[in-house]
Amino acid sequence: MPSVVSIPSTKMGAHGSGVTKFTNCLLVKGNDLVKEDLWISSVSGKILNGQEILYGQRIAPGRIVDLGGRVLSPGLIDVQLNGAYGFDFSVIPEDGVVGYGKGVLRVNKNLVSTGVTSYLPTLTSQRPEVYQQALSFLGPSGTHRDPTYGSESLGAHCEGPFISPSKNGIHNTSVLRTSPNGLSDLSLCYGATNLSYPSPIKLLTLAPELPGALQSISALTSLGITVSIGHSEASYEEAILGINAGAKMITHLFNAMKPLHHRNPGIFGLLGTTPSPTSHSKPYFGIIADGIHLHPTSIKIAWNAHPDGLILVTDAMRLAGMPDGTYDWTNGSRIVKKGALLTLEENGKIAGSSIELVECVTNFMNWTGASVPEALKAVTETPARMLGVENVKGTLKEGADADLVVLDSIEDECGKKLVVEQVWKFGECVFEKEVAVKN
Ligand SMILES: [Zn+2]
């Protein structure tokens, strides 16, 4: 079992420097696991250069953590999380924004124990008033670096409402819109303040074939908002136009879009393109590896086509962890939960998932044959690169935030499995798995 060797230090480093050294661990570096120590600071909340600290500044660690050969990964990043622990980012509760703020904090404090140290709180298609109340709570926390707040928002993901009415999935068609006038239509929906730089929105899913969508993509991109293609009827050619306008991602590939056809490869066809500096580049793509949304072989095909673009997402919603039953959802709809499967009562459509991100990583390894670091890349380095935060999140490089997960890698007759044993946020241990005591 992992053990903290010295007395745990306080935030300001009462036991010396505030410096922690992890030893006897396997660091996730690119596609490899490297046996190396890692040094972090609870004062700056960042990863340090161990050689420089030890030999240059002659600072001894205040705390040494022996991980007993376990995997030390950057904290996991989920770019599509609709809610959890009974809270839904798309619903303003009865007590209004006060209750909303408390709900966000509750998610953050619980979510971190699953190894997800940063994420994009995701809103499904809603009426304008929901965005205009909710978004101010969902922006990046930026300079507010308090480990006790748990998981950290990197900005909101607005999935809709500028999506196709025929690929709506669980989104209520009555709230869907188009943006023929580009930015001014987007502002009427999300609120002008939410579309001024810096925006609380980090990722926005839309359908590129809708009127005004291409000029909307350009406007959003210039505001620093990454655009993702999804819930869309786009042909291959329409999808290419979306990418050329600036879209960089595909939302939950395969789901809520046309399937691959040999004469019209559709949105999936973007994975077969050859990147060029003068035109488009291959987009990143979200994959829900919950065993319900996709066949394992589809995931393997997508990964083989573009391994550096694959991002595992949960698409989880507020019923995660709740008992089976029928629950009220937004806009008067109801959802049936049976195990991990969530469906809309009125039409039986898949209504999201209740899986944890680390379980998606485990599924991905077993279905594709990916190694531990290859699978972890899809929830660390790749989403960080998609969001443009690759020097701060999703990496163990010096200067990055000390958001870390200690994972036990188990292999038995069922296959490989990763288990979250410890979680560190801004250089402080914020979760440690309880160890069963043998009698
Ligand atoms: Zn969706």
UniProtKB/TrEMBL annotation:
Q: What highest taxon heads this organism's lineage?
A: Eukaryota
Q: What is the lineage of its organism?
A: Eukaryota, Fungi, Dikarya, Ascomycota, Pezizomycotina
Citing just one GO molecular function, the answer is:
N-acetylglucosamine-6-phosphate deacetylase activity
Active site: which residues?
D315
Q: What is this protein called?
A: N-acetylglucosamine-6-phosphate deacetylase
Please list the residues that bind substrate.
Answer: I170, N255, A256, R263, H293, I350, A351, G352
Keyword Cytoplasm assigned to the entry: answer is no
**For this protein, what does the record note about how its cofactor is bound?**
Binds 1 divalent metal cation per subunit.
This enzyme's EC code(s): 3.5.1.25
Provide the family line: Belongs to the metallo-dependent hydrolases superfamily. NagA family.
Give the reaction(s) catalysed: N-acetyl-D-glucosamine 6-phosphate + H2O = D-glucosamine 6-phosphate + acetate
Write out the residues that bind Zn(2+): E159, H231, H252
UniProt KW keywords? Carbohydrate metabolism, Hydrolase, Metal-binding
* Pfam families assigned: Amidohydro_1
Q: InterPro entries from the entry?
A: Amidohydro-rel (IPR006680), GlcNAc_6-P_deAcase (IPR003764), Metal-dep_hydrolase_composite (IPR011059), Metal_Hydrolase (IPR032466)
Which EC class is this protein assigned?
A: hydrolase
Tell me which residues make up the Amidohydrolase-related domain.
Answer: 72-423
Question: Mind listing the GO biological process terms from this record?
Answer: N-acetylglucosamine catabolic process
**Needs which cofactor?**
a divalent metal cation
In terms of PANTHER family, this protein maps to: N-ACETYLGLUCOSAMINE-6-PHOSPHATE DEACETYLASE (PTHR11113)
